[in-house]
Write a structure and sequence with these properties.
- The complex is a heterodimer of chains A (328) and B (389).
- Chain A has helices at residues 2-15, 25-63, 66-69, 86-117, 120-134, 138-165, 180-204, 208-216, 221-232, 234-250, 253-258, 276-283, 289-327; strands at 73-74, 82-83.
- By secondary structure, chain A is mainly α.
- A two-stranded antiparallel ribbon of chain A has the order 1-2.
- The radius of gyration of chain A is 24 Å and the shape is globular.
- Chain B is of the alpha/beta class.
- In chain B, the strands form three sheets. In chain B, strands 1, 2, 3, 4, 6, 7, 8, 9 and 12 form a nine-stranded mixed β-sheet that branches. Chain B has a three-stranded mixed β-sheet with strand order 5-10-11. Chain B has a two-stranded antiparallel ribbon with strand order 13-14.
- Chain B is globular and about 75 Å long.
- Classes of the chains: A mainly alpha (328), B alpha/beta (389).
């Protein structure tokens, strides 16, 4: 009995994150190692920010706040050098938003199918395939995009969209296949495996009793999924969407190959654009000193955008999901 | 202690369930910890040379332009096989190469563009060694149209400025009598990444067209008035090949490897010249008389619009950059390494040239070879000339 009590005391101490007198050296070691890993991550982030700030110094001094309002990126080929971040931030936000818009509903559909609807013999192979998709390198998506997706978009999808929604300014212009719309589509395809795999895990974690309770009060299959599963798994969905968003914001290679790389603020999704990540990747190797510094500042902006977008997405989604819960 | 009532008195059964559940994790953690330690040790050992052979073998380190990389890569393997000297070249781009040689972290650099005044001031004593010659082509995709459309610098600048927008524009038609040109818009494709190819192309447009020079300029990346950007030569070539009525500029090797249709470009002598190894070599020969010495200012050196009836007008040297006084590199440069470096460079400009044509690079004309010989002959280490043989 005494031994039992000691074990429970230790467990309690552990569950409160403190090493009490009863803790073994192994406990202390493990606790300090994991704490070191956690704080090491923070330290790493701080160091990255510091290095970016140092590297961006010349650009910050030269352009000050106008870097955040400027829409022109004029390299040394044609002096004076002027660098502004607006077209890139805009392109990043639009493509990531488009990717979420197209990708999240599909991902949730896949996850619901896998966890709620699919016959058991289909679940495992399908899950493997989706997890495999998540591991495909982005340059492969990019190549596939250039040789398969872009021609299909140019010849079929974009003309079809235009024939229906052509009156909207965001679908005007001549579809060429290498544009913001195609970049958004490839990003959506790239984030679907991530979002659906994590959402599926979240749905599987929903206790069976939740579903049984819903079914017991006479809910249909869809109502059960909506009330019991989606609501219960909302924090998991949230995490999945934010991870997908992170990939969409920072994706480089596939976007570079498909977005058309034009440093302008576009009005139509069929125009060419540019994202922060693709622009940095494009220009870092051959940039002069001031341009390099401006690119590093752009990297800082990317970090800022990523943080802001994540916070906004979290707030927005929490609200949406809470509303969903209340209305049930 | 919320919810601890159950926890306070676990049954023996519960404990029995807990223990085996936890022990695999402990095992995983131990394995993970051990592997982390092993990886760290290996990494440390790697950087501190535990695994390198005890014999002193020389490794020459270079970095820079991507354009000559296939050729340099060939040189690296052939040279190591025949002499045992390792050459390590990182194709990180001309700009990166110049900044590394300026910081003296590499023994030599590769650059597609000659050093400008600021770069020369930052890395005094660097000499230029033209290693091979490349050319940039105007590649197009006109269904049913064979290779050899005639264009001029004025027409090309017009297309890339967005002033000439259709294939049947009068200025193109005037250069191609008897050819039926489609009344289709021209989709312009350009590089999205900074590159030596862009530098050569925009230098040509700047030389040919005042508007281009004043509004856009020449550089490794420019603010493009029109067009779609694609990464790398392969990206531009791919985009052109799958987009009917598109056109763009592509490095010669890529157009030949992908059998693309390319234009004949009008040279200053007035003739329309197709980009071939011969016409590019002719351009280099035409420009030989204007070349400075290796340690001179190469900023204005250009094979663009080189004289000669058969000279292709959009060509360029690509350079290796080394310090004339090798001791400035610091303690990593030894007498043995200095000798190995000069010997390697000597080999590159002589025996190494025979590998050029198979990889679609142009061999150096003999006059450029002798210029390089003089440059290499003037290289010193601690005040002593470094023998090349």
């Amino acid at each position: 009995m005494r031994a039992l009590r000691a074990v429970t005391a230790r467990r309690r101490a552990r569950s409160h994150g403190r090493a009490h007198a009863g803790a073994t050296p192994g406990d202390v070691l493990f606790q300090s190692l994991s704490a070191a890993a956690a704080f090491g991550l923070l330290l790493l982030l701080a160091l990255v920010t510091l290095i970016l700030l140092l590297g961006a110094g010349p650009s910050i001094q030269t352009f000050g706040f106008s870097f955040f309002t400027g829409a022109v990126w004029n390299p040394p080929a044609h002096p004076p050098e002027v660098y502004g971040a607006v077209p890139f931030v805009y392109g990043t936000l639009v493509t990531a938003g488009l990717a979420l818009l197209l990708g999240v509903p599909v991902s949730l559909g896949i996850a619901i199918f896998l966890s709620e609807l699919a016959p058991p013999w289909l679940r495992v192979p399908l899950t493997y395939v989706i997890e495999l998709l998540a591991a495909i390198p982005s340059v492969v998506f990019g190549l596939w995009g250039v040789f398969v997706l872009a021609p299909v978009m140019r010849d079929s999808v974009e003309p079809a969209v235009q024939s229906v929604f052509g009156f909207l300014p965001i679908f005007s212009g001549t579809p060429v296949g290498t544009d913001v719309f195609t970049a958004g589509v490839i990003l959506a395809i790239m984030i679907i495996p991530t979002i659906s795999a994590i959402s599926r895990e979240a749905f599987l974690a929903v206790p069976q009793t939740q579903r049984e309770a819903a079914l017991a009060i006479g809910a249909t299959h869809w109502e059960t999924t909506r009330m019991a599963v989606l609501t219960y798994a909302r924090s998991g969905i949230l995490g999945a969407v934010i991870l997908g968003l992170g990939r969409a914001v920072s994706e480089t290679m596939a976007v570079t190959m498909l977005i058309g790389n034009r440093n302008a603020i576009f009005g139509s999704l069929f125009d060419q654009g540019q994202t922060i990540a693709s622009w940095i990747a494009n220009n870092f190797t051959e940039a002069g000193p001031l341009e390099t510094s401006a690119l590093i500042e752009l990297g800082l902006v990317l970090m800022l955008v990523a943080v802001l977008v994540t916070v906004v997405a979290r707030l927005f989604l929490t609200r949406v999901l809470r509303v969903l819960e209340v209305t049930e | 202690m919320n919810g601890s009532e159950k926890e306070a008195q676990p049954t023996a059964e519960e404990l029995a369930r807990l223990r085996p559940a936890r022990s695999p994790w402990r095992k995983y953690a131990a394995v993970a910890a051990v592997s982390v330690v092993v990886v760290l040790l290996l990494a440390y050992g790697w950087t501190s040379g535990w695994f390198s052979p005890a014999t002193e073998s020389v490794t020459l380190v270079g970095a820079g332009a991507t354009f000559p990389y296939p050729l340099i890569s060939k040189w690296m393997s052939v040279y190591e096989n025949s002499t045992g000297v390792k050459v390590n070249y990182q194709a990180i781009g001309s700009g990166g190469g110049i900044s590394q040689i300026t910081k003296k972290t590499v023994d030599f650099a590769g650059s597609d563009a000659p050093l400008n005044a600021a770069q020369r001031a930052g890395a005094q004593g660097l000499v230029h060694i033209p290693e091979t010659i490349g050319a940039v082509t105007f590649a197009y995709n006109l269904p049913g149209m064979a290779t050899g459309l005639n264009v001029s610098g004025t027409v090309l600048a017009g297309i890339f400025l967005g002033n000439i927008t259709a294939w049947n524009d009068a200025s193109i038609a005037a250069l191609n009598p008897g050819v039926t040109l489609p009344s289709q818009p021209i989709s312009v494709v350009h590089r999205s990444d900074g590159s030596g190819t862009t530098f050569v192309w925009t230098s040509f447009l700047s030389k040919e067209n005042a508007t281009w020079k004043n509004d856009v300029g020449a550089g490794t990346s420019v603010n493009w008035p029109v067009g779609i950007g694609a990464p790398q030569n392969s990206g531009v070539a791919g985009k052109i090949q799958q987009t009917p009525y598109s056109a763009g500029y592509v490095e010669l090797a890529y157009t030949i490897q992908n059998s693309m249709t390319v234009a004949k470009v009008q040279n200053p002598a007035g003739s329309f010249v197709a980009p071939t190894l011969d016409s590019i070599k002719a351009a280099a020969q035409g420009a030989v008389s204007t070349l400075p010495s290796g340690s001179g200012d190469w900023f204005n050196v250009s094979l663009i619009d080189a004289p000669g009836d058969t000279s292709y007008p959009i060509a360029s040297f690509t350079y290796l950059l080394v310090y004339q006084h090798l001791e400035v590199i610091g303690s990593s440069m030894t007498q043995a390494k200095a000798q190995a470096l000069v010997k390697f460079l000597w080999w590159v400009i002589h025996d190494g040239q025979q590998y050029s044509e198979a990889l679609v690079y142009v061999q150096l004309p003999s006059a450029v070879q002798s210029l390089n010989e003089a440059t290499l002959g003037a290289i010193t280490f601690n005040g002593q000339a470094v023998p090349h043989s």
